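User: I'm putting together notes for a lab meeting next week and I want to include a structural view of one of the chains we've been expressing. I don't have a solved structure, so I'd like a prediction I can at least talk through. The sequence is below, exactly as it appears in our construct file.
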Amino acid sequence: MKIHRHRGRVGLLAAAAALSLVLTACGNGDTDGNQDDGDVSGELTMLTPIYEGTEGNRLLEEEILPAFYEEYPEVTVSVDYQTYGTLNEKLTTAVAGGLIPDVMMMGVGWVEAFAANGVLAELDSLGVTAESLAGDYTPQIVAGGTVDGSLYALPIMLDTRFGCARMDLLAEAGYEQPPASWEELRDYAVALTERDGSGTLQRAGFDMLSMDLRQMYEVFLFSAGGSLFNEGATEPTFNSAEGVAALEFITGLMNQDQVEDIGFSNTDADVHPLLNGRAAMAVCHNNLWIQLQEAAPELADQIQPFLINGTQPGMFFGGTLATVSASSENQQAALALAQFLAGPEPSLAANEQRGNVPALTELLDSGYVQGNPLVQFAMENLDVAQREGGPPQWLEIRGDFSPAIESALLEQKTPQQALDDLAEAARAAMGR
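Assistant: Thanks for the context. Below is the predicted structure for the 432-residue chain, given as structure tokens.
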């Protein structure tokens, strides 16, 4: 953990961005409500899982915060850097101790829990509503910060999951385009799988193990027309016929079609198997492009993203949102900071540093997005993307997903049994 108090008055993010930063705080000039910039003052604390590492710290402390101070000279910000691995514990400890940061960044799916506990300020009462964001974000993104019709969070960045194919390897097998359906995905994967004479896997036709199993499953769940919970998030629905069909398809690829073996890859692999030829297709994260630039730049024109298509296109999105503490003594200043960080230039800089997907639709035309095919693909398809979460207990429930999916992949349980048991555990958590 690093806590840094920063106060400065250097230039904006870049000379070309100066006008944009002054004129807009969140991509919408009227989201400031009745806030008067001259009255925004005070000392703020901010908890963040992004801007990590030397470059991230430098970006925040030497560019973004000084630009914020140019606009709000009577505000100071103390930054507490965490990782997503430590963030939930840090937030929970802060709430229990009554030392809640003024501005908190958290993931998509987290807002419901902290809003339900009264930790987060309703931004509607501060002059920012879901309706005021509607022109700047797709409805799914705005919904990620909305609970029971009230807005609690502003999107800063997204991270997405979708299919990726090595087009050079597909071409060798006679395929000119990525698969357009589950049936084609299975046919391609079988044809592209390679084993040596002893049966040892040399190349996975479709890699599922380099991705977090929960998020990998959710891509197929969404493409099957399924959902995690019902509309009111009062009942799990991932064990519906659609959810079971998604898991049956995944386990069929692994165990019947044998397009990948357990242990062939994992989420900690140094190089993604698409980049070293150990996989022909995979469910991938948009930041694969960063690793490609470092490990295999010669493949820049060979990695092609595609939507997983079942009964509908499937794509997962998560991301980072900025929230304001309900107990902050300087809520107007906290809101100003949250809006600033979610604004075009600060959020673009943060996304570029991490290789993530800007939430603001206007940034689709930015040089960063246009120069990153995976990020560009994600932004162009956000209208079909779906998020995880729903009930306030999601942070507790989500940890049970990967073991459940693994039990089905290992044939310890049938897909129906694995999901039914998972649903029962979710109901128990939601009833507590």
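A couple of points you could mention at the meeting. The chain has two domains: 2-159+318-386, 161-316+391-431. Confidence is low (pLDDT under 50) at residues 1-37.

User: Perfect, that's what I needed.
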